[in-house]
Design brief:
The complex is a heterodimer of chains A (about 300) and B (about 230). With about 300 residues, chain A is mostly helical. Chain A is built from eleven helices and four strands, in the order ααααβββααααβααα. Chain A has a single domain, classed as ABC transporter involved in vitamin B12 uptake, BtuC (Orthogonal Bundle). In chain A, the strands form two sheets. Chain A has a two-stranded antiparallel sheet with strand order 1-4. In chain A, strands 2-3 form a two-stranded antiparallel sheet. Helices cover about 40% and strands about 25% of the residues of chain B. With about 230 residues, chain B is an alpha/beta fold. In chain B, a hairpin with a 2-residue loop joins strand 9 and strand 10. Classes of the chains: A mainly alpha (about 300), B alpha/beta (about 230). At the A-B interface, helix 6 and helix 7 of A face helix 2 and helix 3 of B.
Chain lengths: ~300, ~230
Amino acid sequence: MTWAMFVQHALNGLTLGSLYALIAIGYTMVYGILRLINFAHSEIFMLGAYFVLWGLTLFYLPWFVAIVVAIVVTAAIGILVDRVAYRPLRDAPRISALISAIGVSFFLQNLTIVAFGALPREVYRPAWLENPILMGEVRVLPLTLFVPTLSFLLMLGLVWVVYKTKPGLGMRAISKDIETSYIMGVPVNRIISLTFGIGSALAAASGIMWALRYPQLQPVMGSIPGFKAFIAAVFGGIGSIPGAVVGGIMLGVIEIMAVAFFPDLAGYRDAFAFILLIVILLIKPTGLMGARLEDKV
Amino acid sequence: MLKVQDLHVYYGGIHALKGISIEVPKGKVVTLIGCNGAGKSSTLRAVAGLIKNKKGRITYNGADLTSRDPVEIVKSGIVMSPEGRRIFPHLTVIENLRLGAYSRSDEPQILKDIEWIFELFPKLKDRKDQKGGTLSGGEQQMLALGRALMSAAEVVMMDEPSLGLAPMLVKEVFDIIAAINRQGKTVLLVEQNAFAALKIADYAYVLEVGAIVLEGTGAQLIADDRVKSAYLGG
């Protein structure tokens, strides 16, 4: 393999990895606060992409406006899912909310089939995204530079919210002890809504960039990236935001590199993530950056 | 004045509080003593808004707080420092204090109050950027009280603040409670350390299995034979 090819693969891995990371952040934030795996998250990712298509073809919105509107609407749907499907079960056993999450996932998938049809839809890409950039021998699509950069900026914004703002302080507090946060005056339900909103907005951003990178929309398009992002979150240490970022990027790079170095195994591409999950669960069940296992009192 | 009238609390089928009535006048220290399971913590938790399944009436300065949620209770001027301290171990001392002030938005006054807490608990100032979990048990209790005070509430409810502390620190905690009271805070104190609590209390209630069996000033109860034999080990 030439040096130029290696760089190209690395950049592709970074692109795929940032998309996984953006989804994984939503899984990990919700888990950190509610100890809930939000299985509807992969459908949120898918809806983000569909809403852009809708904005472009139905309302003739300009690209930028369509993307912003899609992200805002998707965030609102993420909040709504929590309100309707999880909040009423807050005091119920955790398994109830998990089953509710699986139900929401099926519901959103089927709702999309009803609204947009089950056939794959082509995505039209703006011309400036189609022309490869030449850097020496390395040829990259603009998206391959654009996706990691934008993802990085979004993650920086997230870190700022979580570590430098008052709602972020509330999030960090309720992730450890909901009741004490509540009696100290933290509006717990509002902070949980905000968490779902931020996680869903990032997943929508990921879904939109995914649709530009792999320009085809299907109602089930969220399943595989969603599963992989969930694995990335577990790999990095579920509940840890840096863990989700590192886990997502590593998973993307490993996936691309494995196919690049062992082309014969390309058919097993989607299996790598699951093998990685089994290995990490055997070696370090709390993930790379996960907290020590401790039961909540 | 905080007033609790005929408070009943149910946990599932268990009738945990069977008609508790207490009064906490402004500027006073009132204590609830009694054994484990007598209903002291349930009373505080009900006032703090954490227990939904209850009957009775809780008022503060005339306003009905019975069905308010915990955030509204804090905003109306009553805060609880929970049993077992429950500081946030992964947040710094400053962040813990800021969390206590979550319901407020008067930033300049919040900064002044953080300085006030540091005057009250100089040890916390030395450790202000350390994680809460790295503090000693005594320091964590100071932090828990400081965090509650940061809410600027007039009534501070404390659930077992001396629990699990070394005897020397227990005395310090009670001195601090008296100092907090002198600075104008009304205190509702729940304690298993009955003697120390009665000594600083203006008024006290004795609880047994969910009901008040005796009440009086701190001095009266210390001298009472029933209290002596049951709670003061003599």
